[in-house]
Specification:
The protein is α+β, with helices and mostly antiparallel strands. Helices cover about 55% and strands about 20% of the residues. Helix 7 crosses helix 9. The structure holds adenosine-5'-diphosphate and magnesium ion (MG).
Length: about 425
């Protein structure tokens, strides 16, 4: 409307003012020069015609300009709308993303989405703003992150995802995949980081790897063990024979014999892996099996100033299991517990019904404990921290419990002690 008003006003004003000027000036000139009425009229008509035509041209030009102005205003509004829409789209994408999306400048957090705050254990993203990223990155990865920031600053490249570890508010550690790029934020260079929690994925992969190694080792065990056992018996026999004939090498042959014994122990552990396929499950009193195992350790415990304290829930149901195999598991765990307590202490053995279908056996020692990052290695073949260890005891135990459709959980605190929780189904063959 405003432009329409202007559209008529300017040419109209021009024509009006020019006409008044022409009439007045021509009147004065006409009188001064004493022109005839005829000549005077021709002058005026010519001048008025010119004014009228230029007025029309002016009108057309203004109209065209205003139309194009109008169009560019519409285009500008459309652009603004598109910008608002795309801004809203990106904002929602960032808020909806299950991954952490974070902006930082030289390691100082400028923005983090809700998922990111939640991943780190915070309610409100604002709690993280202004904090240093390095407060949340595991110390092992500080150097890598510094190098990546340096690389992005120099090359403004998009960096491929790498695996890192981050520390949450409660101190827990998450495995994450981190991708990053440099961006412009508020006219300054900053970095955008996308962080994906892969802790569960890694756990599943580890469990799969462990299960795989267990079954491969199990299937190889029987064959290899038998093959080795025979030549070993021959070796042992000859060493003993040499001993009888010639006593001069006795110290060496004693070592040889003890080493052969060690190989035999390893083979027996290995054979346990293959056995589960041929065992028969029966309903057994778990309390009896546990107590029988504890009795085996009586003398050893006294020598090591360790007290084994049992505590069994009354009236537990019988559990479908292979008694000798479970005994093997309890022996392995109690043996480890004793070996972890060089200065003595207590080992608590508790047995209770966890729910309708499960019983739980808990062994808690006051030993040296296991560092958190090493717990996942338990049960891997040959993982041992002992000079004379085989690293097979727990592997065999995990396999036996797996065959009973049970689970083993380990909780440990270095310097405080370790707890092994064995959860067994009451009926494992249903
Ligand atoms: N109760 C425990 N306390 C501390 N460390 C333990 C305990 N049980 C097991 N471990 C750790 O697990 C490793 C593997 O145990 P295991 O499979 O029985 O093999 P080994 O006893 O021959 O070393 C041990 O070397 C030890 O480091
Ligand atoms: Mg052991």
């Amino acid at each position: 409307m405003f432009s329409d008003l202007k559209l008529y006003k300017i040419p109209l004003l021009y024509v009006l003012l020019s006409s008044i000027y022409i009439l007045l000036s021509d009147k004065i000139v006409g009188e001064l020069l004493n022109l005839s009425t005829y000549t005077f009229l021709i002058h005026i008509t010519k001048a008025l015609l010119f004014t009228f035509i230029t007025g029309i041209i002016l009108y057309i030009v203004i109209r065209r300009d205003i139309a194009s102005l109008h169009l560019s205003k519409q285009a500008l509004e459309e652009k603004e709308r598109q910008l608002r829409e795309s801004e809203e789209l990106y904002r929602r994408l960032i808020e909806l993303s299950p991954d952490m999306i974070l902006l930082h400048q030289n390691g100082n957090c400028l923005f983090v989405n809700k998922s990111g705050a939640r991943m780190l254990g915070y309610e409100d993203p604002q709690e993280l703003i202004g904090n240093s990223l390095f407060d949340y990155i595991h110390p092992d990865y500080h150097e890598i992150v510094q190098q990546r920031i340096q690389k992005m600053t120099e090359e403004s490249a998009i960096l491929d995802p790498v695996e890192e570890k981050i520390i949450c508010k409660d101190g827990s550690v998450l495995n994450v995949d981190v991708a990053a790029t440099s961006i412009q934020y508020n006219n300054q260079s900053a970095f955008m980081v996308v962080i994906r929690d892969i802790t569960d994925k890694k756990k599943a992969e580890d469990a799969l790897r462990k299960a795989d190694t267990l079954s491969i080792a199990g299937s190889l065990a029987a064959g290899v063990a038998h093959e080795i056992r025979n030549p070993l018996t021959v070796l042992k026999g000859f060493i003993q024979l040499f001993n009888q004939e010639d006593h001069s090498h006795f110290p060496y042959s004693k070592i040889m014999l003890s080493e052969v014994d060690r190989i035999e122990t390893i083979i027996s552990d290995f054979l346990m892996l293959a056995k589960p396929q041929h065992v028969h499950f029966h309903k057994n009193c778990l309390q009896e099996i546990v107590q029988h195992t504890i009795n085996l350790f009586e003398t050893q415990a006294i020598m090591k100033k360790v007290q084994i304290i049992p505590n069994y829930e009354r009236d537990l149901p019988k559990v479908e299991c292979e008694a000798n195999q479970l005994k093997q598991v309890f022996i392995n765990i109690l043996k480890n517990a004793l070996e972890a307590m060089p200065d003595g202490g207590d080992i608590h053995v508790r047995l209770w019904r966890q729910d309708d279908n499960h019983v739980l056996i808990r062994f808690s020692d006051q030993g040296i404990g296991i560092p958190t990052e090493k717990i996942e290695k338990l049960g891997q073949p040959f993982y041992t921290t002992k000079e004379k260890g085989t690293g097979l005891g727990l592997m065999v135990s995990y396999n036996i419990i797996k065959n009973h459709k049970g689970t083993i959980q380990v909780y440990s605190e270095p310097g405080i002690g370790t707890t092994f929780d064995i959860l067994l189904p009451i009926l494992s063959h249903v």
